[in-house]
């Protein structure tokens, strides 16, 4: 199979690559629902030491910058309660944590979740967190620019490998909210 974007040596439909994914991501692919069939989600094998965006683009092509997204875990606090959420924005932007995220979560304060919280709560590796397979109650805030793309490169749950996902599939994830201006 040829990858729909990028130039990768190995690309396979995600349902045929479940062993390459973390358990929560594999389970989400296995039980996929929505207008985009699961076999349109593509797993591409990549080197784990090249997982971070800048290094990844050096090795796999700078043209992927406008077609790749980061998924970051944020913590919103109000009173004594903390709400964890995921934010998906294009890699060329950054998450508007103190504006759009804080307002959407109804939080007094919002910040990036600590690495051990993000990995422990998601069951995914740092540098590979993806919005597919997140804990059930989490809000998934998605920048509208991500949804508008035919395909978007995101993490696979591990530092090794990435997923290529049709943009509109992000709007159909459980608890997904599409926001204008989430990525600034």
Automatic annotation (TrEMBL):
<dbReference type="Pfam" id="PF04073">
    <property type="entry name" value="tRNA_edit"/>
</dbReference>
<dbReference type="GO" id="GO:0002161">
    <property type="term" value="F:aminoacyl-tRNA deacylase activity"/>
</dbReference>
<dbReference type="InterPro" id="IPR036754">
    <property type="entry name" value="YbaK/aa-tRNA-synt-asso_dom_sf"/>
</dbReference>
<dbReference type="InterPro" id="IPR007214">
    <property type="entry name" value="YbaK/aa-tRNA-synth-assoc-dom"/>
</dbReference>
<feature type="domain" description="YbaK/aminoacyl-tRNA synthetase-associated">
    <location>
        <begin position="61"/>
        <end position="169"/>
    </location>
</feature>
<protein>
    <recommendedName>
        <fullName>YbaK/aminoacyl-tRNA synthetase-associated domain-containing protein</fullName>
    </recommendedName>
</protein>
């Amino acid at each position: 199979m040829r990858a729909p974007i990028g130039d990768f040596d190995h690309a396979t439909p995600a349902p045929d690559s479940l062993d390459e994914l973390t358990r929560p991501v594999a389970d989400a692919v296995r039980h996929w629902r929505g207008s985009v069939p699961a076999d349109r989600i593509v797993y591409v094998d990549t080197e784990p030491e090249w997982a971070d965006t800048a290094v990844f683009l050096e090795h796999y092509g700078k043209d992927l910058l406008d077609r790749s997204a980061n998924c970051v875990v944020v913590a919103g606090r109000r009173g004594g309660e903390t709400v964890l959420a995921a934010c998906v924005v294009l890699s060329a932007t950054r998450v508007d944590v103190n504006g759009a995220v804080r307002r959407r979560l109804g939080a007094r304060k919002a910040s990036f979740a600590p690495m051990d919280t993000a990995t422990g709560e998601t069951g995914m590796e740092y540098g590979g967190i993806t919005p597919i397979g997140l804990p059930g109650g989490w809000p998934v805030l998605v920048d509208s620019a991500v949804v508008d793309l035919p395909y978007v490169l995101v993490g696979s749950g591990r530092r090794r490998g990435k997923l290529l996902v049709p943009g509109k599939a992000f709007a159909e994830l459980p608890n997904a909210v599409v926001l204008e201006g989430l990525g600034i």
